[in-house]
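Final report, closing paragraph on structural work. Over the funding period we assembled a curated collection of sequence-structure pairs, and we close with a single example.
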Amino acid sequence: MTDFRETLIIRNSLVLLPTGELRGLDVLIEGGKIRELGENLAVECDRSIDGTGLTLLPGVIDPQVHFREPGLEHKEDFFTAGRACVKGGVTSFLEMPNTKPLTVNQATLTDKLDRAGQKSLANFGFFIGATAYNLEELETVQPCCGIKIFMGSMKGDLLVDKMTSWSGFLPRATA
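Its predicted structure, as stored:
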């Protein structure tokens, strides 16, 4: 496993740039972040990788995944799902709230964050699900990448299909 405190250089690889151009470059990584791209970088690093014949591509963020932990770990858990992500070039995922139990409050969100923090090989974030009963809690739950609101096609507590459920959640006027 990589120590994010070390400096790393990947030399002589083809790098896909934001312009769509492929260029032969060195990539300097410090503290787990790309610090510099350039040809024949003259730097001393803790670790060096020869990228000759390899292409470096930016990682993908998958903004809507449906993993099975908690509740159905016999099918998939954060380790196997995270491993599949990075194998396919997905470096970060944002997971939906319809697991068992549903992710609808701080306790269930914290549980997922703890589980993923111990198992996932990819970066992660979690949506919390809106219900007719947790609208007030949605304003304080954290860290959360977003609120998933099922308004038509869902069963159980995650279906919010009546406007009366929203009366206390409508935007407040500010002075």
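The first strand starts at residue 7 and ends at 16. The two ends are 52 Å apart (CA to CA). We thank the funder for supporting this effort.
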